[in-house]
Amino acid sequence: MNDIFDNAYKALEFAQKEGADEVEIYCIKGRSISIDIHRDVIDLAKESLISGIGIRAIVKGAVGFSSTNDVLRIKEASELAVKSARVRGSDPEWSGLPVKKKLPKVKGIFDKKIADIQIESCIDFTTELINGAKSIRNIVPTSGHFACGNSTKLILNSNGVETQEEDTIVQASIDAITRDLPLSTASEFDMSRKLDMDFYKIGERASSLALRSQNGISTQTRDCTVLLEPMAIADLLENTIVTSVNADNIQKGRSS
Question: 3-state SS string over the chain?
């Protein structure tokens, strides 16, 4: 384990000494690569390292939180979490942190190819994305994005829970527009835990949809059957159902 993980146990001890009844520690370390597309060229490519720790302290049913990515400030963050809990009112819904038990392992969320990937390979994949969008005549890409990363997460609490998990993710998206009037735009994306995506096809699908969307017709307000593609369904779910099933929104009475 690196320094931030080693200090997770110290953070737990610091918060308990400060007077917390219960403590939960969340740690993450990892790496990410992000590439932006402007029109049909790569605009920016960057690689980042991720490291941080979050401390949740409970005092008489009140929850306080603090975080830091500086190992030298972990003691301060632990104390701030406890102080934050002390100035907040008790949560009547609070039933305590999870207790120690055997936890199931989630399979299929880590791909060593993504964990070991170099930024040069990511640039090649992004180029495939652009070329796919340019493969259909009279359609041009306007913007896009490629991102991938791997992370290791550690969760432990004062009830003896301790679990660690490693995962990876890769995602790509691109927008395209027709050259000719009437103008029509479209976008396409994909996301996976494994490096099994066809980036050329993603770009090609975006341009194909832009072409097929030209010369649309209007309709009247009426009750009818509507066939929605995955992209439309994703937008609907994100802006309606997802917020309604958020646990924090439900507890605060903001869920519809």
Answer: CCHHHHHHHHHHHHHHHCCCCEEEEEEEEEEEEEEEEECCEEEEEEEEEEEEEEEEEEECCEEEEEEECCHHHHHHHHHHHHHHHHCCCCCCCCCCCCCCCCCCCCCCCCCHHHHCCCHHHHHHHHHHHHHHHHCCCCEEEEEEEEEEEEEEEEEEECCCCEEEEEEEEEEEEEEEEECCCCCCEEEEEEEECCCCCCHHHHHHHHHHHHHHCCCCCCCCCCCCCCCCCHHHHHHHHHHCHHHHCCHHHHHCCCCC
**Topology of the domain covering 3-216:** PmbA/TldD fold (3.30.2290)
- ∠ CA(29), CA(33), CA(39), 5° rounding? 155
The predicted model gives 9-14 an average pLDDT of: 96
Quote the pLDDT of residue 245.
83
Give the global pTM: 0.85
d(CA 56, CA 234): 32
Pairing of strands 139-157, 62-68: unpaired
Question: pLDDT digits over 204-227, tens only?
Answer: 999 999 999 999 888 899 999 999
Intervals of CATH 3.30.2290.10 along the chain: 3-216
Where residue 90 falls (left for φ over 0; alpha for ψ -120 to 50; beta otherwise) is: beta
- For the cut 80, the answer to whether the pLDDT of residue 234 exceeds it is yes
